[in-house]
Amino acid sequence: MRLITRVARSCRGIAWIAAVAALRAAPLQAADAPLPPDAIAWLQRDGFGVDSTALAQYRRLGREGLLDAQLDDRLGDALPAPIQAQLDSMDIAHLTPAALAATLGDARRRLRTLPDQDKREARKDLRQQGNALAEQARENVLLHAVYGPNQLKEQMVWFWLNHFSVFARKAEVNWLVADYAEHSIRPHALGKFRDLVMATLQSPAMLVFLDNAQNASDKLNENYARELMELHTLGVDAGYTQQDVQQLARILTGVGLTPMRGDGPRGRGHRGPLPLGDGLAAFIPRRHDDGDKELLGQHLRGGGFDEVRRAVDLIVSQPACARFVSRQLAEYFVADAPPPALVERMAQTFQHSDGDIAQVLRTMFTSPELIAARGGKFKDPTQFVVSAVRFVADGRPVDDARPIARWLAQLGEPLFGRPTPDGWPLDGASWSSAGQMTERFAVARAIGNGRGLWKDAQAVPALDGPLYQAVLAPRLSARTRAALAQAGSRQEWNAFLLASPEFNYR
Question: Which of 161, 433, 463, 479 has the fewest other C-beta atoms within 10 Å?
């Protein structure tokens, strides 16, 4: 708020008359009348940001009905036709796992045949192709986030992509992130946590990023085993030991990538690779440690890939897993320091429902703590950018999603851009420094301008319409209203509104 006031006071010229008029707008029609404050607060947590579609859903279904439809995934994933056309035109929409394996395999084989002086250029070209595919994957996720009808599901897609984070710039992960988002994360975003863990475990992107593709009985690599327990399931203080990490690494030996064309001969007979997931990943028996293991105090008999399933079952059934995942969810949706009683109830639901993500979310979204905490959760960059675009577009299809991805990168939270496997921070303090706020104001100005989103945009969008009156106007403080009244243009008014505390807190 202080930043907005300082910028507003520095503006010269006559205050923008239209902005003042908007603050004194005539009463709305009954259908557009503001919802009660607790309804708006609930919707702010339920989705990336409130738009007219979200308001209509809430008015039509009610809170309980909307939550049921979202958790049962009955709202579907249908996007506006122009947005779907953009997604269908992307290379990633037509790059099947088989084609991807063939392309990468051929590229590897060609690299081996090139003179040394040509290999650098060939590797650069391969990296650029992969980066282009990763950029399309980012746009795909962000367009779903802006226009997806099931906003709770879209938030969970982003949450799990961050929880099971992969870094696109490592090795060939950039080629693999589109498959990761669409086939490992999205189908399981509201399902059983065990299935989600297994899907990420069988994802080529994860296996490459955390080095399990190199994990073999004769050359153990503990990286994925450690992060699977520390970051994905149990948390750092769950009481497991280094011995448990080593035993899990032994269990995970042989879980890697299927040999791609150009990678040399495949295994034969019963020792050949067994395809996993979509077929890019594979269990390679000849690389697996067949011995018995001891994990978390339990004896696991050696038995091929079935060991992996039994190990995951054991890990996700631990009370520490229920508490860790529940706290992460509550920190993202409710508060930086979520109420312990809420986390405990969510953890109990997790255990009683066999890790049913939808049921854990139901416990959280029907809790009094969710509404009691309104106004106290600062939006991270993804929540801010997506909510701002949703507010500005309000259902109008954008012509170009690339600016959305660039704004996230400008704010320091690019999708698939976290080099370390811990994911981007969930707390507000990590995103509210003076430097961060300066960048956020610049992004607010760019989004409020609207011209990067629509090719034919001739005028700055008017953000003072019915959506503003229903969602934001009733919640504005006197200081925010004063700052808006000092805006010297529509563009400044939009920037001040999107940078206001009321917009930046959920």
Answer: 433
